[in-house]
Structure formats: C-alpha cells, structure tokens
Amino acid sequence: MAETRMLDGKVVIVTGAGGGIGRDIALMAGAQGAKVVVNDIGASLDGKGHDDGPAARVVAEIRAVGGEAVASIDSVAEPDGAQRIVAQAADTFGRLDGVVNNAGILRDAFFHKMSEDEWDKVLKVHLYGSFNISRAAAPLFKEQQGGSLVHMTSTSGLIGNRAQANYSAAKLGIVGLSKSIALDMERFGVRSNCIAPFAWSRMISSIKVDSPEQEARVARLQQMTPAKVAPLAIYLLGDKAAGVSGQIFSVRNNEIFLFSQPRPVRSVQRDGGWTPEEIADHAMPALAASFHRLDVSADVFTWDPV
Q1: Torsion of CA 162, 167, 170, 172, to 10 degrees
Q2: Which segments constitute the Ketoreductase domain (predicted)?
Q3: Is 44 contained in some domain?
Q4: CA distance 227 to 22
Q5: Model confidence over 7-43: pLDDT tens digits?
C-alpha cells in the first residue's frame, strides 16, 4: 500500500515559484502529492527583465519525478492576473486547496530618497499581490468549506531594517491581512498564516573570512537555504495543520519560531484624563521603561543559526 503523502489530492498555487523559496516550496508540494500551479512572471528581484522560463523549468522538475504541475506567468500585482491564476488552477485541476503568497520584488532605498515608483511597485507585488490572490481564491474556499493561505512576511516588517520602508510596510501589512482573513473566513474552514523566512545571502557575502572560526560561521550561515523553509509551508497547507490559523512563524535554518503579536505591555491612568504637561511629567516617564528600541533584525537575532 502506497504511503499517504501530506498533500495527496490537493491543488496548490505557489507564486514567485521560479526560484528561491517559492521554487523549493513548489517542488516539495509536488513531492508531497499536490498538483501545483507554478506562478512566476520571470522578473528579477528589482523588477527588471522578464523571462517565462523559470516557471516552466520548475514545472519540468516536478513532472520529471512524477508530479503534476502547470506554469503561470500572470502578475499577482493586478486583480485580473490573480483571477487568471486561480482560474487556471480550477480549470486545469478541478479545485484549489491552498495558496502560498511568495511573489516579491525589492526596491531598497533610504526613506528620504525613496521614489513613489519604488514605494508603489513593492506594495503592489507584496501586499496587493497577497490580497489579489487570496481574494480570488476566497469564493472557491468558501464553496468547498476549506482552504489554506500561507503568506510570506519578513522580520523587516516584524522588527525593522534600514532602507526598506516599502518592503517593511508591505510585509507588516501582510500580517494584518493574514489575521483578518483568518478571522473573517474561520467559519468556512479557511486558515491563514504567515512565515518570515531567513535568507541572509547578502550578509553572508560581506563577512570577512580570515580565520577557521569565521569559515565555520559562514558555513553555518550558508545552511540557511530556501529548502529549509519549505517543510513548514507544506505542513501549513496540509490537513494536519487544521487547528493552526492567524499565526506568525519564522524559519531560520533548523529553528522554527512563533512570533508574538502586538498586545498592551504597560498602562498609566489618571482620574479626569491627562494634560500634555502631565503626560510629559508622569505618563511618559512611567511608560519609558517598556519602550522598544530602534532594533533591526540582526539586533534581535544575535546568535548564529543552529
């Protein structure tokens, strides 16, 4: 008797699946029995240069090991493109069970130098793209009383990073989007979760390697491959994650983290309310001990991955 795979019988869309994390998720989804719509417009991270080859190559990899997959080169940034991606899944495979919102681009710039185009393009792909695909999938999920959405967020939004106001805003927006979907569609059996993946390739390349200890450290950092993120995404797409929704996870090599979500940490109260002067003299000094620092991701994750 053949072993049951985690996604047997399911149909899954993975956006931005022509390379990197999306590719590894698509490949593992196929290996776990899913029929996969591999979506990628073939653009580089900066949004320039299009090539319809990446999606087709991943489809070929899935088919080469006996899986089922089709390529999609529509853009998630436009509602019509998202509708076509979802329709392709339903028309080709008869249903849709899961979506991984992974498509993204980067347009890094310090905030005071960021153009409207750099802001707009990043939000369109990341935040609007996640909404567009999820919204297009929602009627199918509602009708069949089930479905799973996995959105890629980032510690750039959850914690902060410099020169990424567009990316950080989009990625934190995705967290709010995911939680709202989880709340609104809970009664239809639809789940929505976020993953913040670690990929420090640029940091790795800048580390000076001048000792055996540094060589060993770089080797550990290089283990943070996209393939390490895929198992959690596959789990969240599957039925064994039936009770998991509205959560924020992170994957860093062999570590899986559950992130906190904003809640009050301290309060002050004064009968009759506050004047600005009283806030300055009493409220802020009382609250200041619980202020958050201006951290970036590396200030929080100070230890090397294991």
Answers
A1: -40
A2: 10-203
A3: yes
A4: 9
A5: 999 999 999 999 999 999 999 999 999 999 999 998 6
The number of distinct structural domains making up the chain is 1
Amino acid at 121: K
**Within-domain flag for 80:** yes
Estimate the crossing angle of helix 129-144 against helix 165-184, to 10 degrees: 10
Neighbour tally for 40: CB within 10 Å: 30
In a domain? residue 148: yes
Q: What is the pLDDT of residues 202-223, one digit of tens each?
A: 444 545 567 777 677 666 667 7
Written as one string, the DSSP assignment of 45-62 is: TTS----SHHHHHHHHHH
Dist CA 248 CA 225 (whole Å): 20
Q: Note down the domain range covering 134.
A: 11-197+229-262
Concerning whether 167 is annotated as a catalytic residue, the answer is yes
The first and second tokens of residue 77, run together, are 């940034």
Catalytic pick from 93, 119, 167, 235? 167
Tokens of 128: 């609007």
| Average pLDDT over every residue of 239-265 | 97
Q: Is residue 242 part of a domain?
A: yes
Identity of the residue numbered 236 = L
- Give the residue-averaged pLDDT of 186-215: 75
- pLDDT classification of 225: cutoffs 50, 70, 90: confident
Domain harbouring 23, CATH code: 3.40.50.720
How far are the Cα atoms of 2, 159, 226, 256, 270 from residue 253, in angstroms, in the given order?
31, 19, 9, 8, 48
Pairing of β 255-258 and β 248-252: antiparallel
